[in-house]
Amino acid sequence: MFQHFEPVSDKSFAGKHLPLLREEMKKLNIDAFLVPHDDEYQNEYIPAYAERLMWVSGFSGSAGAAIVFLDRATIFVDGRYTLQVRQQADEKHYTFEDLVETPPDQWLADNAPKGARIGYDPMLHTRAGVERLEKAAKKAGFTLVTLDGNPIDAAWKDQPARPVTAAAPHGLDLAGKSSADKRREIGAAVARTGADATLITSPPSIAWLFNIRGGDVSRTPLPLARALQWRDGKATLFIAPEKVGNELPSFLGDDVDIRAEADIEAALRKLGAEGKTIAVDPTLAPARYVTELSEAGAKVVDMTDPCALPRATKNETELNGTRAAHIRDGAAIAQFLHWIATQAQDGSIDEIDAAKKLEEFRTATGKLVDLSFDTISGAGENGAVVHYKVSTATARKLKPGELFLIDSGAQYPDGTTDITRTVPIGGPTNEMRERFTLVLKGHIALATARFPAGTTGTQLDILARKALWEKGLDYDHGTGHGVGSFLGVHEGPQRIAKAPNAQALKPGMILSNEPGYYKTGGYGIRIENLIIVTEPQAISGGERPMMAFETITLAPISLDLVTPSLLTESERHWLNKYHARVRQTLTPFLPKDVADWLANETRSI
Fold it and tell me: What's the rounded Cα separation, in Å, for the pair 158 and 164?
């Protein structure tokens, strides 16, 4: 099994670990310490050694931060984790804040004591993040202290070791473009800024640029490394020697100089001594690296990670790969939903049983490399916890009369999947049907959107919420995130959300379409498919070509939860057409009993 179900933390973490951290803080003569969830690479999913926020609080979510004072502490999470954080972080030790509405820098500006010494680890904060903290310090009158080490690392005596999994080539048949071609294009982009090189610190960009994958981070096939991309197309890859197998140097070729990751800071100082101009993404690079460059004499210029946008706009090889992965994954999902419908309706199955069964079906494809995130398997009230992580301490039975929400994904060599389905156990209530149908209306509205070039996800987000808003309902998470090609299940720069996002949607981008509704203490509903932004096409009688979305996820949407009278004729047409495609595509890959069941589940309404 890729996923385990033992609790990774509990409410005792704060009481046990805060005193240890505070002892280290006293040694450093600081009054407070900033604890982001981020690791040194700004990854979303991080290696075990970097779970510093969980160690000090018990909170195990994928986004958050804490500010620990000598006598109090505050933890910040977004809308996905408002319930979870209160279950995991002891309120005797922490107060709770909204990460989006009141981020740590703003909270410090309003609440930090004047004259306080507040420390931070410059490897865990970007230059842009430090600039926001400096503004807060100026407003509140506290002193921001740059630390040479991390006091949590000093206090955490059984901290796991750093990963050293070998990096492996990601072939041209999967990548669709050679690393040399990518490096030439990125080098040209660097040259246009006037820089000699760009410092690339984001592992997804390094994996994409060099056409390599790794295993340093669970759920995402990343090699932890750094790189310098030169304007002439040559590059220097800084990666731990233990990760470099015999085939990697020849795969990368003579234009890639491979060095130990430990050499990166000395290399940056040398660039400074030579007076080089280095482009850096201020939202990704560790503040420490930027300081090293500047203090050594380099000219540092801002440049958005030049790999991010081309990584997000997939080529045809990558798109065909992800389409194939979704057919494979869809067959596994169909078998799982059939199992739920026929074997899990009597209350004997729990959330862990369900998650394990789904992984079994995916493993049986023979192509599964990993999950793309820990399966969210939530029955009843647990389904209302948006990013619920099932464990032996929390697992509920799938009880008749309740809803079951399963949000899951897989990593295959040719594509990354992410799908959510909500199904009834036994008979659903009229309220459940109504609210499911409202979510479905939003899902369909986004799936059928037409929009001109230059449109952002922020402009489209309202389509998914309109039906809910009209009933006084909403959900507190984004509607869509980018998805990588055998990379991160959450990928920027594109997204669909209320929050402003300046990145226009472009053909080849993969996003999720996942509106939801959550009744605290009752149930959760989410319907999620992945979609591809299509090339602009003319509309008969129109004046401008319009882009659209191609839905690539293939799995039935529970008709038992649909109230047809709430759907318009065009919405019913979309659902019937989608289900016909699901049935026609998946049936050849299914056992007869599952195919027969699928035929009924995808019937026209």
Answer: 18
